Amino acid sequence: MAPKSLPPELLFEFVPFVRAEDAVPNAFSSCRLFHNLLLPRVDKWKEALLMNQSQAEKIAELESKNKRLEALIEKLNAEKQKALTDQQPQSSSTASAKSPSKPFKKEVKGRLTFENGSAANYPVSFGEVQRRVESPDRMKISDFLILFHLRKIGSNSADLRKSIEESGIKIRTEQRQHSEDTCFTFLLEAEAVQLSQDFAKLCDRNYPIKPIANEMTSGENGGESGTKPYSMEELGTVRRFLAEILDFQGADESPHTPHLQLPIIAVKKKQIGKEVGAGFNRFSLATHGFGGYAFTSVINVLIKLVKECEKRMSSTTEGENAGE
Question: How far apart are alpha carbons 20 and 42 in whole angstroms?
Answer without folding.
Answer: 6
